[in-house]
Amino acid sequence: MTAAATSARPRHLLDFQDWSPERLTAILDNADTMLQVLDRPVKKVPALQGLTICTAFFENSTRTRTSFELAARRMSADVMTFAAGASSVSKGESLRDTIEVLTQYKVDAYIVRHHASGAAHLVHQYSGKPVINAGDGRRAHPTQALLDAYTVRQEYGSLEGKTVAILGDVRHSRVARSNAELLPKLGAKVILCGPATLLPADLGALPGVTLTTDPVQAVRGAHAVMALRLQQERMTGGYLGSLQEYADTYQVNEALMGHAESGAIVLHPGPMNRDVEISAEAADGPRSRILKQVENGQAIRMSVLYHLLVGRD
Amino acid sequence: MTAAATSARPRHLLDFQDWSPERLTAILDNADTMLQVLDRPVKKVPALQGLTICTAFFENSTRTRTSFELAARRMSADVMTFAAGASSVSKGESLRDTIEVLTQYKVDAYIVRHHASGAAHLVHQYSGKPVINAGDGRRAHPTQALLDAYTVRQEYGSLEGKTVAILGDVRHSRVARSNAELLPKLGAKVILCGPATLLPADLGALPGVTLTTDPVQAVRGAHAVMALRLQQERMTGGYLGSLQEYADTYQVNEALMGHAESGAIVLHPGPMNRDVEISAEAADGPRSRILKQVENGQAIRMSVLYHLLVGRD
Amino acid sequence: MTAAATSARPRHLLDFQDWSPERLTAILDNADTMLQVLDRPVKKVPALQGLTICTAFFENSTRTRTSFELAARRMSADVMTFAAGASSVSKGESLRDTIEVLTQYKVDAYIVRHHASGAAHLVHQYSGKPVINAGDGRRAHPTQALLDAYTVRQEYGSLEGKTVAILGDVRHSRVARSNAELLPKLGAKVILCGPATLLPADLGALPGVTLTTDPVQAVRGAHAVMALRLQQERMTGGYLGSLQEYADTYQVNEALMGHAESGAIVLHPGPMNRDVEISAEAADGPRSRILKQVENGQAIRMSVLYHLLVGRD
Q1: Residue C2 — left, alpha, or beta (φ > 0 → left; ψ -120 to 50 → alpha)?
Q2: Which is more confidently placed, C19 or A2?
Q3: A270 is in an annotated binding site
Q4: Can you tell me the ipTM of this complex?
Q5: Is residue A144 a known part of a binding site?
Q6: Are C106 and A295 a contacting pair at CB < 8 A?
Q7: A141 in Cβ contact with A134 (< 8 Å)
Q8: Hey, are the CB atoms on B66 and A50 less than 8 Å from each other?
Q9: Boundaries of each Aspartate/ornithine carbamoyltransferase carbamoyl-P binding domain copy (chains A, B, C) (predicted)?
Q10: How far apart are CA A104 and CA A212, in angstroms?
Q11: Which CATH class is domain C142-291?
């Protein structure tokens, strides 16, 4: 019997498939409380005291791992860092064996990043423990989408009737995919925009999601404009001509933002390639909420941990 | 004056030479309590609050290190991870200098893994602090043997009159050596089995230990059968013909287990090479206590830390 | 507005420029209390509970990082280890972006090591948070100088009228530079000694500092003699002839110490090249305070953290 089976609601955050708008809103509401904790001199609550959270990162990401580990420690949990590179996994141990061993160590929850889509789901299946997906392949990065949603809500009070444009390499972006799943559940519209080679048709079939290759059309009426990080290695895959060509058309900059709503904000999941997918001016200007996103990430991750591990229905 | 000199009993666990059956039994008994702690929602006791435990691993082993660090944190100790690869040791600093520096940081105990036999003993000598040997060369890995003993005792209530067969590369195995030293002290018999090239004669001289090259003879009457991990690199040393040849004769599988006692259990120190030294069926079947061993490892390591750092005679 | 601006005194320790002798003496006095804490069975005080200290090491130094992290944990702070090598920095993220992101995680203070002189100052500027410089380029390593000063004071009761000779590669040593800035503020004289190619003239212009290429003249009348670590890579820069030639003239050994004050002590910032810049005999003999320096480093780092984060004027 898995942990999921013991509860009316899923004790994991793999993607947003099984998540109702009510539960999602509860996460965002609770993040308000967590932000207040982060504003206090002593930024710590005892909510997860005595629990052990394992960050199992099979793909390196210091920034995301650090953000989760800090969030867990601020809830007073013990953190166990499992760096796959340094472990038996590199000796050929299977994901299943690794997770079964970690579970015998009495880990209370997992935060998983993996290059393969679906890996977080497998960890949940093998362990029967709450799992937070911190990015699996191109599929999902749900806490990033939650912090994006939270940042937009913070600006406008609600996501209802708001439009979020997301520009860049949509095809390879778990951030874009998770936002496309999440935002419409909270009442927002999503416009995904990029070169035709980087726009997967299946996402256009989601409710509330529109695809376009035209950046001006994408940002027209948008309340928030997100630039996706351009992975340099995509250049070699034949998806793009040149960085310059890409930047000329799809860069989020002041000129493009002139077509958006007057108070529209600029988002980026980081780390940025300044003057490639986003101009330095837009990144550092008054519309930018990029550092706010990072701050909100702490609050959202604390809120998700609380919701999965101690919250009640 | 070393810590050892301040106490009637040794404040270290290097091997089992100076350990009486009574003290060993106390460790196993106390592990029962620790297992209960691990079953509670809050898996933490304040026993080592304010103490700093240093894991000094001069040989990489994420699994063993993690297990010790979790055990220490669950006793409320602070953990200092000293990864030799990233340190002054790689600049040519001697073991002595390294340990003397760490000791000046006021470390309260060391958990040491090193490729050289006797290294843990040197750390104890240089530091005067309690030391747990987490594997030194081919010599000893005492907490692994304790968790093996504990797992057998858990099954049968006692080790008195039980037989444990250990199959594989006995020569290069500190696990085999530590079990050969420990189990007879607790009243069990040990049969060590492997190809003649991998069976060191000196172990056969230990009380309660028998050597054989015949796996069927080894497991006959055994209450527990342990497969040792086959280090692939041994193949090049001329010790073995081929993996297949090895597996054909010495693999722990259902066929071989048919010769053991009817309720005999299967053990493995992990990580496993499935279908080499152990069949997948035996590893995952009802006789397997391999995941139980991992769980018991937490309890045993907590018990050893308690015994060395706060226990009284 | 930066943290520095909110307080009458700087909330950072970058170098000793703005530090009065009174504040420096307060740090040393408080280290006495910290040493007492380190002598207790429970080596922990709650002073920094709920605060998060980030060690941002852009240059590897396990020893220094470990010393700071232990000090922070003994003050009950949470520690966030930011290892630059494993992070976005290696993907080309700028120092500014990195620090701005970390600051959004609500880090309360930074401990920074960086290969570029002035980096710690930039971290303070970008974050507005208290920063301790743990070594930036050739410029400064203030906590090392403080622990050196503390070790001399421990021996003689005061630094007033004492002479400290520092021998070796002065040019490339942030330790030498920081001591040259600190010790005269506390009433001591500093003699810097090394081959002419390794003696930067600007240091000789500091009050209380003298340069010489003659080791006997350097140690004459000295109450403490410090050997600097000889970086092997300097050999290729044309600064030195051979290791042997260097050792013949500048090695701190019993013969050279015969010219110092009768009770003079031997210091080294570690790790040592025994029988290069210091003889094994001098390193391990009765004059050596090298292990004492390591112990004092814990106390000094705890004292600096306390002073910057909770102390009052």
Answers
A1: beta
A2: C19
A3: yes
A4: 0.87
A5: yes
A6: yes
A7: yes
A8: no
A9: 11-154
A10: 49
A11: alpha beta
Joined together, the tokens standing for residue B99 give 């340990």
Please give the class, per CATH, of domain B3-140+295-309. Answer: alpha beta
Sequence spans of domains, chain A: 3-140+295-309, 142-291
- The verdict on domain B142-289 having CATH code 3.40.50.2000 is no
- Shared fold status for C3-140+295-309 and C142-291: yes
pLDDT 10s digits, A212-267: 999 999 999 999 999 999 987 666 667 777 888 899 999 999 999 999 999 999 99
Give the tokens for residue A8. 């009316």
- For B60, phi then psi, to 5°, come to -70, 135
The whole-angstrom separation of Cα A62 and Cα C82 is: 8
Sheet (strand A224-227) strand order: A209-212, A189-193, A163-167, A224-227, A265-267
**How many angstroms separate the CA atoms of A230 and A207, rounded?**
26
The span from the CA of B176 to the CA of B190, in Å, is 10
User: Which A residues, 292 through 311, put their C-beta within 8 Å of a C-beta on chain C?
Assistant: 292, 294-295, 297-298
Best to test chain A binding among B40, B43, B65, B293 (most A CBs inside 10 Å): B43
What pLDDT does C1 receive? 34
The burial class, CB within 10 Å (0-12 / 13-18 / 19+), for C66 is: buried
Exposed, middle or buried by CB within 10 Å (0-12, 13-18, 19+), for C249? middle
Q: Which residue of B has its CA nearest to A78?
A: B73
| Chains in touch with C (≥3 Cβ pairs < 8 A) | A, B
Residue B102 to residue C295: CA distance in whole angstroms: 9
Annotated binding residue at C144?
Answer: yes
pLDDT confidence band for C3 (50 / 70 / 90): very low
Least confident of A1-5, A128-132, A287-291: A1-5
B117 close to B139: Cβ distance less than 8 angstroms: yes
A101 touching B, CB under 8 A?
yes
H-run or E-run covering B254: helix B254-257
Residue in this structure with the two tokens 């960890």, named with its chain if needed = A123
Residue B92 confidence class, pLDDT cut points 50, 70, 90: low
